[in-house]
Amino acid sequence: MVKTLVVDDDPMTCSLLETILQMENYQTASATGFDDIIVLLDKEQPHILILDFHLAASETLEQVPLIRANPTWQHLPVVMTSAIDRRQDCLAAGADEFILKPFNWQDMLKTVNKIRDNLKI
Q1: What is the C-alpha separation between 67 and 107, in angstroms, rounded?
Q2: What is the chain's mean pLDDT, rounded?
Q3: Does residue 110 contact residue 91 with C-beta atoms inside 8 Å?
Q4: 3-class SS of residue 33
């Protein structure tokens, strides 16, 4: 079973995303923040990461190059989200996809399912 990790500072967004993904037979985990992205990934062992661009007052854009530089996680699909269109910045940093908030849930599922179908697990 494919596991997604949702990282967003809004617990409601985490809960809604987890519910929708679980209805599609994904295993899910969520976090409303982290001290070290690699430690969080090592703990949760996701196949797909959904990462909000803003967590509280900080941006997460610098986390993507850290993920790409880590041999264990360098191929982890990263979907970034934001209420502000930061698509180009996110893709340039190494994210695989960007989804603008508020989500269209069908688009979110289409994106995550497309990534799932391309996973080699």
Answers
A1: 25
A2: 95
A3: no
A4: coil
Query: Smallest Cα–Cα separation from 5: which of 62, 48, 59, 58?
Result: 48
Nearest residue to 9 (alpha-carbon basis) of 53, 68, 63: 53
CATH H superfamily, domain 3-118: Response regulator (3.40.50.2300)
pLDDT in tens, 47-78: 999 999 999 888 999 999 999 999 999 999 99
Strand partners, 55: 58
CA–CA separation, 78 and 74 (whole Å) = 10
The model's pTM: 0.96
Closest CA to 93 of 116, 59, 42: 59
Round to whole Å and give the CA distance between 47 and 115: 10
Q: Which two tokens stand for residue 21?
A: 């993904």
- Number of C-beta neighbours around residue 21 at 10 A: 23
Q: Could you tell me how many residues make up the chain? A: 121
For residues 96 and 108, give the distance between their C-alpha atoms in angstroms, rounded to a whole number.
13
The conformation of residue 25, written as its DSSP 8-state character, comes to T
